[in-house]
Design goal:
The chain has 13 helices and 5 strands. By secondary structure, the protein is mainly alpha-helical. The strands form 2 sheets. The protein has a 3-stranded parallel β-sheet. Helix 1 crosses helix 10 and helix 3 packs antiparallel against helix 7.
């Protein structure tokens, strides 16, 4: 990824590749890399070689200024009770049935961590500056726009100004400090007006608090400080969309495989998912990358920082130093 804040690109706790489990044929198509893994023992053997790379990926990701945080679930049979395990196995015969009833998972944390406002998505023991996802707040108005068109249009048009300003900041390649000043000048007044308008709907009893529109307004007002962190902290993102897109791969795998058997299998899945998605994010070929890591397993284990998805080709192309002559 382009900077340290996104170098990791891993899904800590997510399942493996965006495709079926072992023994099933993977999907392929134009512009899509097909990765068909062999039996478990082959995959597990390669995972042992990849472990140092995976650890280095996490280490480099932890150095970022902004870490994106979200979660999804997948079942692990050895951690389930007998009755729940039988239910999960029964679901396997019905394609696409398995859906987690509760959201749990492993979480990423950092100086600025963005996610939706569910408390279970928050890193518990580390001090963080937390931002909530503005797109999540916006989505609630999109979902009720059919029933409250005028009110929702007002909110969506205001938020469109903010996203347009952020696009201008990216196009100008502004530094975090310059982006903050730009948003304070161009987006600050719009957000102040929007906050006053939202509060007015309840103050004047123009909106029923228990309605779907009232719920959307209450969400925005309750989380306003964290939704507007981009107006106070340099580099704070508007939303968590980049992480939500990454989780689609985990969700696709869950729809195909439904569950893991053991925690060890889930960890192997973490390794492959993390490395493959980071390759795709950095426009590297995952198949080529994993092949080269297998060919140079000893070198990669000794110097994992030289074998990241964004620099392994430079390592391969570097001239080999001549052997030292024996004396």
């Amino acid at each position: 990824m382009a900077d340290q804040s996104q170098q990791g690109g891993h899904d800590a706790g997510g399942p493996p590749v965006a495709g079926p489990s072992l023994g099933r044929q993977s999907r392929s198509g134009p512009g899509r890399t097909a990765l068909a893994f062999g039996p478990w023992d082959i995959v597990y053997a390669q995972a042992k070689h990849l472990e140092p790379i995976f650890v280095e990926l996490i280490r480099q990701a932890s150095r970022g200024d902004v870490l994106y945080n979200d979660d999804t679930t997948i079942k692990i049979l050895e951690l389930m009770g007998k009755r729940a395990k039988q239910h999960a196995l029964a679901e396997e015969s019905i394609e696409g049935v398995a859906k987690a009833k509760q959201r749990t998972g492993l979480f990423t944390s950092g100086i600025v961590s963005t996610g939706d406002a569910l408390s279970r998505n928050l890193p518990g023991e580390l001090k963080t500056i937390v931002a909530n996802c503005l797109a999540h707040g916006r989505r609630q108005f999109v979902e009720v726009a059919e029933h409250f068109p005028e009110e929702c249009r007002h909110v969506l048009e205001a938020l469109a100004v903010i996203y347009r300003n952020d696009a201008i900041a990216r196009k100008r390649n502004l530094s975090p400090a310059a982006r903050l000043e730009f948003h304070q000048a161009e987006s600050g007044p719009t957000m102040e007006e929007l906050q006053a308008w939202l509060a007015l709907q309840f103050d004047r009893r123009l909106v029923e608090p228990n309605s779907s529109l009232g719920g959307a307004i209450a969400y925005m007002l309750k989380h306003w400080e964290k939704l507007t962190l981009f107006l106070r902290v340099p580099g704070a993102p508007l939303d968590n969309n980049i992480c939500e897109r990454a989780l689609k791969k985990a969700i696709l795998h869950r729809k195909n495989a439904l569950f893991y058997k053991t925690e060890n299998g889930a960890h192997v899945g973490d390794i492959f998912m993390s490395l493959i998605y980071t390759c795709e994010f950095r426009d590297a070929n995952p198949f080529d990358y994993l092949t080269e890591l297998e060919r140079h397993a000893d070198e990669a284990a000794s110097h994992p920082h030289r074998w990241m998805p964004w620099n392994y080709r430079r390592t391969l192309d570097a001239p080999t130093p001549p052997p030292t002559s024996a004396r």
